[in-house]
Every structure is written in structure tokens, then in C-alpha cells.
Amino acid sequence: MRLIRGLHNLTPADRGTVATIGNFDGVHRGHQAMLDLLRQEAHVRDTAMSVISFEPDPREYLAPEQAPARITSLRDKVLRLADLGVDRFLCLPFNDALAGMEPEQFIRRILVDGLAVQYLVVGDDFRFGHRRKGDYDTLVRAGGRYGFTVTQTETIHDGRQRISSTRIREALARSDLGEAGRLLGYPYAISGRVVHGDRIGRDLGFPTANIRFHWKPALEGIFAVDASIEGGIPRPAIASVGTRPTVNGRQPLLEVYLLEFSGDLYHRHLQVTFRHWIRGQTRFGDLDALRAQIDRDVAEARKWFASGRGPRPPQA
Fold first, then answer.
1. Could you tell me which residues are beta bridge partners of residue 254?
2. Which of 92, 133, 214, 282 is the most core-located residue (most Cβ within 10 A)?
């Protein structure tokens, strides 16, 4: 998949595409149904399949204090869209200029002059442009003028409820990994590059691989997880997501302790798949109390993996 960062990086080869627009946080089952429709149309027209999205999420830019937690990072979103057959991902930087763009200007600059869109799919709640004044009817009228077709997908329901990023965030917030995975269509995971930390875990006897968040994570707590190094085999591990209140942490951090591994993970990519909730985030009186609790957490994680529900340790 070709990742295109900004309109200025479009080339003539990117023109004449079928496309969809949205945030695609989580790339959940509702998004996947939309992409299935788009893929079918791309096949019929023998053209590329493009996704148009924004970074940061417009809500993070316009009202950061009220913005929802993210389900997936930009990197994880890109990888999942590539796995689903998307040919091009146009990532538009969301800034004052884009926020102030009128719907007609958005259509002309991005859909017509930029991508020469032939066919566009949007969700039934899609809004765009300055003050969200543009909608499906705006696009249909523009399509008549500029020669592209617009389709609006119906909301995908799970029983009586709509499948949405909001429902997935709610499930993750209460650590309901089963519900989140069912709505996503895959087990919930976070990936990132391992960075240097403050070595507290190592001093406690549990050296961790640390991944910093540049966004608000959708869950917190202690979990049994699978950890894959650079796309390798999944290894049993335990992970903490949160601000580490015992050491007065402020920024959320993902800390991963691999149960059957020793080695240097700095600067390597780690994919962490969340399998089993162990407990919530807690402030302890001192590091000795924290160490004792980590011992119990690791014992519980080992017991869960021994039950056969997680990956086996790799053979030496």
C-alpha cells in the first residue's frame, strides 16, 4: 500500500480511483464492510482503492480535552488497511487550513483535482468541511457536476446495536476484551517501537519493553498478552497500560515483560495482543509492595497461559 502524506505528495498515477473518507479508528467490522464494497467497485472499474483520512483526528485538534481515546495508532491503522487490500492511503494533516475548508473547496481540491475520484463510499453519518456543513447530499450534488458516483453505506449492526468505534472504546474501557474483539473482528492489539525507560522494572526484577503513547489509549490495567518481536512468533508476556501511579507517572505507557525471553529489544517493533485482564491500575505504598504484586500478577499470567489459552513459550 502506498502511504501518501499530504496533497502535495500526490502524483498523476494516484488519479482516477475509487475512495472512501473517514477516521477508521480501529478498522472495525463496520469499516471492513465499507471496504468490501469499495474493493468490489475497484475490481469492476479496474482501478485503485483509496482511503482518505486525517492525522491527528479532527477532534484531537479542535477539542483535545474532549477528544476520545484512540483504539489504534496511525501505524496500526495503516498496517490493517494494507492487509485489507487498500492500495493508497491519503493521510491529510488536520490543521487550521483544513478545518476552515468549505465543503465545496474540500470536494474540488481533494476529490476532484487531487484524486480524480470516480466512485466514493461514505458512512451514513459522514460530515465534512467547515463546521461539518457538508454531508451525503452535498457530495451527490457535487458528483453530478464533476462526474463521480457517491454511495452511502448502511450502518452495520451487531444484534440491535450499531457497530462503532464508540462501542469498542467502551468495551476496552471496562477491559472487556472479548466484546472489543468481536466488534473489531480481530483480537485487540497495540504495536510500537521499544524505547528506553527509567529502568524501574529492571530494578524490581522484571525488565520491561516500553512503548510510549503519543495518543490517549483506550484501556488501562494489567493484562496477559502475546508479544511478537518484529512480526515473529507470539511469546507469552504480561503488560501494564497506564500512568504508573506508584512512581507518580504522568504520561501513559505500555510496559511489557516477556515471560520467556532475555535480550535487547530497544528500537525494535513489538506487537502486543491483549488476551486476558488481570487487574486494574493501582497505587501501592512503596516499591516493595509493587514488587510483591507484580510477582502475583506474573503467577496469574503463567497460570492463564498454562491453561492452554495463550501461546506456548518458543523452544530453545
1. 211, 241
2. 92
